[in-house]
UniProtKB/TrEMBL annotation:
It comes from Saccharopolyspora rosea. This is HD domain-containing protein. It comes from the Bacteria. Gene3D superfamilies: Hypothetical protein af1432. Residues 18-85 form the HD/PDEase domain. Pfam families: HD. InterPro entries: HD/PDEase_dom, HD_domain, HDIG_dom.
Length: 183
């Protein structure tokens, strides 16, 4: 079985029934990742698999620390998933900032943040899809997250702190896609 099919099946098992709204988001993020995959060369399937698994840490049985990216990455590592895929899940969409604000910086540091076009494309895909699976502009998605959580929530504080890094990843990905006539 190829990695994308495997990732889709694993994500569906954990998210489809337990958190259906999150599952809709994940499927749309995977569609966005598919759009960006040509900018990732031989890592195209890795990108789509990471998109399918990026929010698996929201599955109730997998929640441990409350930082879904870390919980998901730890779960994937526990079932012997490729380390690079675990790291992409751990660090998607500036999750290191969430972990830092939760006092879990050392724990997320167990996973390498590769800072590559694949990582950027995963961030772009996640940050251009709304909670119900609709494709949205990056500023609109960031505003939606802030509104959903409120200004004092740790998620909003992490968003504010990591905004330059998020914006840069989105801009780099969109530039790569423009170069391929994909936007």
């Amino acid at each position: 079985m190829d990695v994308v099919t495997w990732a889709r099946e694993l994500a569906a098992v954990h998210l489809a029934d337990a958190v259906p709204r999150r599952w809709r988001h994940v499927q749309a993020v995977a569609d966005q990742a598919e759009r960006a995959s040509r900018a990732c060369g031989p890592d195209a399937d890795l990108l789509v698999a990471a998109a399918l698994l990026h929010d698996v840490g929201y599955a109730p049985p997998l929640v441990s620390t409350g930082v879904h990216a870390l919980d998901g990455a730890r779960y994937l590592r526990s079932i012997d998933v490729d380390e690079r895929l675990c790291c992409l899940v751990a660090h998607h969409s500036a999750a290191a900032t969430d972990a830092e604000l939760a006092g879990l910086a050392a724990e997320i540091a167990e996973f390498e943040d590769e800072q590559t076009p694949v990582r950027d494309a995963l961030w772009w895909a996640d940050m251009t899809v709304g909670p119900d699976g609709e494709v949205v502009a990056f500023p609109d998605r960031m505003a939606e997250v802030r509104a959903r959580y409120g200004p004092d929530h740790p998620v909003s504080r992490a968003l504010d702190k990591s905004m330059p890094e998020r914006e840069a990843a989105v801009q780099r990905t969109e530039a790569r896609l423009r170069a391929l006539d994909q936007v």
